[in-house]
Please model this.
Amino acid sequence: MLGPTSHVYFSQRLRLHYVDWGNESAPPMLLIHGGRDHCRNWDWVAERFRDRYHIVAPDLRGHGDSQWMMGGSYSMTDYVYDIAQLIHQKNMQPVTIIGHSLGGSIALMYTGLYPETVHKLVAIEGMGPPPQMIQERINQPIEKRLKVWIDELRKVSGRSPRRYASLEEAYERMQSENPHLSETQARHLTIHGSNQNEDGTFSWKFDNYVRSFSPNQLPFEEQYKLYARITCPTLLFRGTESWASDPTTDGRASHFSKTTVRMENVEKAGHWVHHDQLDKFCTITDEFLHGV
Model:
């Protein structure tokens, strides 16, 4: 595989990394990874679409080769700002966006803010927790939510990055987390998602603080209002073996315009649909992008 080139941009004084797959005369496509992941998890998808798009894949702040932030929480609004800056600085609009999990949430929020800048949108399990879990959070008193956040943050602050004795040991951990991954996929994700420490051990690249979400996140009701502002064709993916619920049956898809949104449930796939069923994901996405 002829891989991408690495680049840097700055957002809120952070040094953030992205890879560029070339083909700059083609329409722009942005690929946004999920939490505790990295930009090179998109390599197989990028390989399928690089001939027809100018593909850029960023490492979110605190992930991959991007700088870690100082402070207690990584907020959704900061992630959205970083993506808005990248699209603005590289003059990528109108852009096609594909986002997974956290990246899907960022993509949905960005598109709701700037609907005129997005040509088409694909979100893989990017709508957050199921409604029942959301209601449990909403119904918690504010003092309980804040105390839970403080307790979580204290745990994270005392947690050292896990060290693996070898790259092989890290690979085995990656493989155990998602049994759908082929050996080639798991090794590729491990190589690009880890650093070697000074003592020769290996640790994942992401900042442990990305595990801590601010208790002052944008309320879900406000996020749903942003979904209603999305005007471009939107494709929502879900793996039937995932923990995520179906947005069509649980009502969350109703916040989108019926004329723009489409839902795809993919069999034999978990949370990482684009890894677990790569061919099916790319076929459906290709048809969606090109109006077949």
